[in-house]
Amino acid sequence: MPPIFEAQALRKVYHTGELDVVALHGVDIQFHSSELVVLLGASGSGKSTLLNILGGLDTPTSGQLRYKGWDLTGGDERTLTLFRRNCVGFVFQFYNLIPSLTARENVALITDISRDPMKPEEALALVNLEHRMDHFPSQLSGGEQQRVAIARAIAKKPEVLLCDEPTGALDVNTGIAVLDAVERINRELGTLTVIITHNADMAGMADRVLNLKDGQIVSSHRNEQRVPVSSLKW
Ligand SMILES: Nc1ncnc2c1ncn2[C@@H]1O[C@H](COP(=O)(O)OP(=O)(O)OP(=O)(O)O)[C@@H](O)[C@H]1O
């Protein structure tokens, strides 16, 4: 099977005042359909930069990124907008839900503008929140709010789910429920999933574990078997 993403010599330089910060130093990597990939690395190693480029939120300074053979780096803003809207779901550390809307309404905001979405109820059931659909964010725990954010990200049935520190603001037990939801979506929908974390204990849940250091992928390890999230040692 051809890869979903194919990155070649990706380089990203941020210019801030007098200073140039090289965030990515020539990254070559492929991501395949249905994979669950955990991306590890110290603070500042370039994880978010890589994820943002994969998701079309940022563009590389040089190098090439292809999505299903489609050149995202040569593309114009309209191409990137269509790619983001139709192909990618994002989950961030902070949930960014709209406080005046219920869980169902927060998800419906996205399904209303998508091409072939699932129903908000279906997306919320996938993250085990069917009993909380009519609650407002303030009536939900941090982990439940993050699960609403995951439901919102996947309700449009994206090919790719990108998660930047999805459990960064949560305690261990709440984080487990969130990762369980992400793993289930990957398994049941076959969504290519990339998760950034500082927590090396999460590596066991992945098909593949990448380590970034100083803007380069310094190791790539494939797990023979995925460990269920509930059995990971924290
Ligand atoms: N918008 C920006 N402007 C200038 N420099 C930036 C910008 N975004 C990131 N950087 C720099 O690029 C490097 C890589 O940052 P990045 O956020 O990708 O790292 P990270 O591995 O995700 O870090 P963390 O784990 O702390 O989130 C860092 O040195 C960072 O300071």
UniProtKB/TrEMBL annotation:
UniProt superkingdom: Bacteria
Gene3D superfamilies registered for this protein in UniProt: P-loop containing nucleotide triphosphate hydrolases (3.40.50.300)
Gene Ontology CC annotation, any one: membrane protein complex
InterPro entries, per database record: AAA+_ATPase, ABC_transporter-like_ATP-bd, ABC_transporter-like_CS, MacB-like_ATP-bd, P-loop_NTPase
Domain ABC transporter: 5-232
Stored Pfam families: ABC_tran
Entry's Gene Ontology molecular function annotations: ATP binding; ATP hydrolysis activity; transmembrane transporter activity
UniProt keyword list: ATP-binding, Nucleotide-binding, Transport
Protein family according to the UniProt entry: Belongs to the ABC transporter superfamily. Macrolide exporter (TC 3.A.1.122) family.
Name assigned to this protein: Putative ABC transport system ATP-binding protein
Origin species: Prosthecobacter debontii
Source organism phylogeny: Bacteria, Pseudomonadati, Verrucomicrobiota, Verrucomicrobiia, Verrucomicrobiales
